[in-house]
Amino acid sequence: MEYEVIIGLETHIQLNTSSKIFCSCKTNSWEAAPNTNICPVCTGMPGVLPVLNERVVEKGVLLATAMHSQAQPVSFFDRKNYFYPDLPKGYQISQYDRPLATGGYMDIPSGEGTRRVGIWKMHLEEDAGKTKNEMGLRLIDFNRCGVPLVEMVTAPDLRSADEAAAYLTRLRQLLRWIGISDADMEKGQLRCDANVSLRPLGATYLNPKTEIKNVNSIEAVRDAIEKEILRQTHEYEAGRKIESWTLEWDEDTQTLKKMRSKETEADYRYFREPDLLPVYLTDEWKAAILQDFPELPQERRVRFMREYALPAYDAEILTSERSLSDYFEAAVKAYAGDPKRVSNWLLNDVMRMLNESGQTAGQLALIPAYLAEIITLVDSGVVNASTGKTLLEKTSVTGKTPRQIVAAEGLAKVSDDSAIRAAAQQVIAENPGEAAAYRTGKTGLMGWFVGQLMRKMGGKADAPKARAIFEELLA
């Protein structure tokens, strides 16, 4: 029998506020020593009262807008009751039937073209602590208690492990683009639980699902889902039923393990949080939050292809990160030529600099106007392409304009026929073996000869003219 895979994702997004959701403790739990960013509020001491951090609501509204969700004018906080060692109050302050936002969607690439993934619910909540086993001891770090989260639940619209990975990739990009989360899965800033079930191809009902937890990378999500699809397929083919278990992904062994039977909403005994007032999102407050809302990656990707005639590949990479996208557009505005030229330089040379330095485009000393100036110098023949590439590094290091560096270091292209001819004759004289090999048919050595001449002339020779002179002298 052929099966259809049904996948829904629950993502927990750690918001990058400076303080926690209900107290003034810092949120940098990843860097801090265990149990140092805590107070009576986030550790659940008796008699304390939570106070809502309004920046958490604002960042949640930004995400709702980016996900085409409807931010609600009134939302409530609720108590979600369950008992874990790292949940000091014995309950979590979350949202249930009146969340911050409802509905929405994200479009992702799929084998069928585009898959629209619906959003069922988006709500605010506090994070729990962190438990780890070390040297036979179970240790608890409460630093993460009270760190603000947005939990976002998708509809069961995904149909493969690859689509789940594509959704997470696009979501991570979006979170960084609108500036509400660093979304580093290894640091727990973006966490994902995957709900997986199978049904016969063509069926419309849903079978029991399993939930996969403890997955800390996009590739691990893909691997875990593929393993669970294979397991469920074997179970059905053996005539057994799938039980609604919560499964844990073991990264070391690349296996799934049963943790417990899956809880239902009734198990959590939700009720209204008595210590917090409702959240009233007025039109004025929402307008203030969204006044600087940016153009989103997908919209900008389409516009780059339409406005700058970029191929889809270029537009996809240039909109993968907001500062790179802004850098490209600023360079295009400073450059009078074809935007594809700017794209080529960015993707081939500037991206290499970014990868080597670990910087973002916005941190480069090579500002967009300088890149545009370098490309113009190459286009106009003032410097050759090789010198243009060295100007990228020189401009980044010195902070001087490309024209200032060309003038100060005498980097202008040498096009004088006699100077290039003299250097070419010298290269041939110094390398008689290579010259003889070329004359016997090894024409691939031409690039080597031009390279030797470039070294001799400090990289300033006109390369096409040098090639033509070598072809004449070696004929």
Overview of the structural elements:
This protein starts with a strand and ends with a helix. Strands 1, 2, 6, 7, 8, 11, 12, 13, 14 and 15 form a ten-stranded mixed sheet that branches. The protein has a three-stranded antiparallel sheet with strand order 5-4-16, with no helix packed on it. β14 (245-250) and β15 form a beta hairpin. It folds into three domains: 3-289, no CATH class; 297-409, no CATH class; 417-473, Arc Repressor Mutant, subunit A (Orthogonal Bundle), CATH 1.10.10. It has 475 residues and is α+β, with helices and mostly antiparallel strands. The protein has 15 helices and 17 strands. The model has no long low-confidence stretch (mean pLDDT 92).
Descriptive tags:
39% helix; three-stranded antiparallel β-sheet; 15 helices; 3 domains; alpha+beta; Arc Repressor Mutant, subunit A; single chain; ten-stranded mixed β-sheet; 475 residues
Q: What's the arrangement of secondary structure elements?
A:
Elements: E1 3-14, H1 54-66, E2 70-71, E3 74-75, E4 78-81, E5 91-94, E6 101-102, E7 105-110, E8 113-126, E9 130-134, E10 137-141, E11 148-154, H2 161-177, E12 190-200, E13 210-215, H3 218-237, E14 245-250, E15 255-261, E16 271-272, E17 279-280, H4 283-289, H5 297-307, H6 312-318, H7 322-334, H8 339-357, H9 368-379, H10 385-398, H11 402-409, H12 417-430, H13 432-439, H14 446-456, H15 463-473
Parallel strand pairs: 13-14
Antiparallel strand pairs: 1-11, 1-12, 2-6, 3-17, 4-5, 4-16, 6-8, 7-8, 8-11, 9-10, 12-13, 14-15
